[in-house]
Amino acid sequence: MGLPPTRLAEALIGSARRARAATTMTATTLSGARVIATHRGNLDEMNLTGSCFCGVVSYALSGKPLLSAYCHCTNCQRLTGCPFVHTIHFPASAFTWTHAARLDAFVIPDRPWKTRFRCPTCGACVASANSKAGKYSVGRAARGALEAWDAVRPTAHIFYGTRMLDVPDALGKWEGYEGASARLE
Ligand SMILES: [Zn+2]
Ligand SMILES: [Zn+2]
């Protein structure tokens, strides 16, 4: 991301401290979750698979994402201990769990429509289901085939008003969702 390593480390440490103070959840991280893109023909036929850090929990996605962005909202910050996350939204119909193990789930009390699923073994948050919007979100795309990466490449920084650090890249910076809120930069 081109961030100065020392600034990023300071932000990560500060964020982790705040997260520990703000929640009683078991310590977890998103850093192990990964999305692997495979490419079969054109983007409409693209399938994505993802898993937690340890591989016990996995899922598959079909088609193109509705949104792919770096999210700087305070929920993402507090839940992950990271200054921002890469989130990718798909219609719920595009998402399928592909593992047999049980899932741990967490719901923020004032946002009962959104369930965040975690691996019970490694603790990585692998996906969230939003029943109000009819969407699933996954995170942490790893670069797969270059063409497939283009389909899940972040297009914006969202909820940038609550950022913990500036990100001097060329992507648009938005107060809320891309194209549906004030553009900050
Ligand atoms: Zn796991
Ligand atoms: Zn967020």
UniProtKB/TrEMBL annotation:
Pfam families linked to this entry:
GFA (PF04828)
Q: Which UniProt keywords apply?
A: Lyase, Metal-binding, Zinc
What protein am I looking at?
A: CENP-V/GFA domain-containing protein
> Quick check: keyword Lyase in the entry?
yes
**Keyword check for Metal-binding:** yes
Q: Which GO terms describe its molecular function?
A: carbon-sulfur lyase activity; metal ion binding
All copies of the CENP-V/GFA domain together span 48-150
Q: Which domain of life is it from?
A: Eukaryota
Give the similarity note: Belongs to the Gfa family.
Higher taxonomy: Eukaryota, Fungi, Dikarya, Basidiomycota, Agaricomycotina
